[in-house]
Amino acid sequence: GGEQGKNLQALLLLERTSLLRREALGIDHPDVQRSLQVLVMSYNGLGMAAIRAGGMEVAWELLRKAERVAGERSLLKDKELKNRLLAITYNNLGCFYRTRGNLHSALKALDKALWIEMSCDESDNPAATHLNISAVLSKLSKHHAALEHINCALQLLDKAMKNQKRSSSLKSKRGKEISLLVAALYNAAVEYEHLGKMDQAAEMYEKAKATAAQRWGAAHPQTIALEQALKKFRREEGFGELLQTTSSSIPIFESTRQTLRLQTSGDEEQEQEQEQEKQEEGSQGIMERLKETFPLRWRRLPGARRRKEREEEKRRRQSWSQLNCGRRRTKQRRTKQSRLCLLSDGIQKLSSCSWPGDVGERVEG
Question: Is 195 helix (H, G, I), strand (E, B) or coil?
Fold first, then answer.
């Protein structure tokens, strides 16, 4: 639309301004570093807007630019800032791939975002990334793995909300955390329903509805939707056997855009409090759980399967080649032996013949 065109023109102007500042002031100047940060945030924001508008090609170009600016060869000197921007970019790339239906690529991008968030001290709470991964895994019918990520998100949210009660500077983020909590509880109910664990599913539906009612009130659309989902679940459960589950886990890509806006505020106190949260929550244990849960996932990807098939085909060709070489060598050896046998027979026949001039014969003149 016209607004998107104006935004893209403004982005081009921002790119030129950043380049001119870099040439005039040098890459280490604070204004240049700040302009690079704003550029990455603009790429991400406009990329997400393009996804919502259906402009997937534009979104792809913008998100790839964001990945290049914040990637391994980034000109950003602040490593923690670069990691935060890269985690946001990979989250948004996961949204892009999921919208296109490329679930394996979405999972790969979201895994990259999660590892960055878990290893980076100054990063947002990775609960939203866990929920995004669980939504993609649910689409792939990996409900046990999806539930593992939801449980990780619930633990992280519980820890964050406890810290918010003790710290007044983090109360502004409480609304976001509660929204994530409601989504996590609902997604857990859906996964339990897929796994046939009806008691746990009912409990999670009840908790999601109660949390939404306490936060937003009974008349809020989210609360009404959760109440309808619970009634539907109760109605289907009452038939004695579970009908086919039609619910699906909801992704939290909207929270990724909220995270994007939070990053631009530049509030250093909030970032310090986030660092304390990260140090307290014991991320190593969760990382070990993730390693145990997904040790061989990427070997099952289509690309890995194609590589494996090519390697097997190569080995088959090599084995056939070796076998044929062996057969050729055997044939050559037999041919050589047969020729030697024929030659020896010919020599014996020749030696048994009498010729003029041999001993014992007189040649008459």
Answer: coil
